[in-house]
Every structure is written in structure tokens, then in C-alpha cells.
Amino acid sequence: MARRGSYAKGIAKREEILTVALDVIARTGYRRASVRELAEAVDLSQAGLLHYFTSKEELFQEILRKRDDVDLATYGGESVHPIDGLLGVISHNQEVPGLVQLYVQVSTDACDPEHPSHAFFVERYARIRDVFAQFVRAEQAAGRIDDDVDPERVAALFVAAADGLQTQWMLDPSIDMAQHMLHLWHLITRRV
């Protein structure tokens, strides 16, 4: 029985670490948020913090997974139009530059097949493209997008545009990522 309690406490501590890390990195930035600072924020030593994760890379990957979960809970759901949800996430990203920095850095590093987060990003991109392609097909069925538009290509282009805009925005914060994505959406839907 004690093992179950310890396991539950471990899961709760891991969730606390991820929740606090989201806030710390959003506030201070990816480069300024050290593992030591993250550990101190949850009253652990660095070794104690890494006890909950196999490596620093896994910690950062799980922070991004937690960010995705929070974004989905906040900007997703059946009552939210997918484009509104996407624009909500993108607008929110402009308020948390540290998390955008973390995402850009880890996703770039994960392009190496040997990187511990490689599989996470391959699966994440495939899932996002699939969800967006399904949305495009639904919009085609409703007559809001031409039938000759390839849903898979549109999905891949939207992901590429979002990621590219994040990089441009980090270099020039005057870029309104959400407005650019909305414009792209209008280009796809305007012929109907």
C-alpha cells in the first residue's frame, strides 16, 4: 500500500515540477532558466529534480508536452472553432517568449535522430498535421474550402508557417503571428 502512495506522490511532484517550470521558463526565458532554478522553485536539489526525469532533455520535452496539454485545455474543445483555437495558442505564445524559445531550441535539436526528443517531435508533428488535415476535410465537406485543396499539404504548410513565424517573431517581436496565420487561412478559404 505504501508503494501506491509513494507512486501517487511522485506523479504529483512531477506535475508540480512541470507546472512551475512552465511559469519559470515563460517568465525568465529558456536560456535563463537553469535546472538549478527550476529545482529551487519546487524545493528540490538539482539531483532531486532530475530524479523525476531521466535527463535534462526529457525534462524540457515534458515541459513542452505539459504546455501542449495546457494549450489544448485552454484553447481547444468541441465548442472552439479550430482556427480560433490555433490563433488563441499563437496569440498566447507571444505572451510567453521563454516557452517559444524552449520549443524552437528543443525542436531544432530533436531533428537529430539520436536526440532523446526526436520521437516526441516526429509524433507531435504527425498528430498536429493529421488533426489539421481532418479539419480541412471537414471544411471542404461544408463547402468552405475548395475540393481541389490537398488537406495534408495545407496541414503541413500551416505547421511550417506557424514554426517559421515563431522564429521570425523571436527576431522581430513586432510581427503579429496570429494575424499572419489568419491571413494564410483567408488565402485558403477565399476562393469559395
Automatic annotation (TrEMBL):
Residues 34-53 bind DNA. It comes from the Bacteria. Transmembrane segments: none annotated. InterPro entries: BetI_C, Homeodomain-like_sf, HTH_TetR, Tet_transcr_reg_TetR-rel_C_sf. SUPFAM superfamilies: Homeodomain-like, Tetracyclin repressor-like, C-terminal domain. The keyword Zinc does not apply. Keywords: DNA-binding, Repressor, Transcription, Transcription regulation. It holds the Pfam family TetR_C_6. Residues 11-71 form the HTH tetR-type domain. Coiled coil: none annotated. PANTHER family: HTH-TYPE TRANSCRIPTIONAL REPRESSOR NEMR, TRANSCRIPTIONAL REGULATORY PROTEIN. This is TetR/AcrR family transcriptional regulator. It comes from Luethyella okanaganae. The lineage of its organism: Bacteria, Bacillati, Actinomycetota, Actinomycetes, Micrococcales.
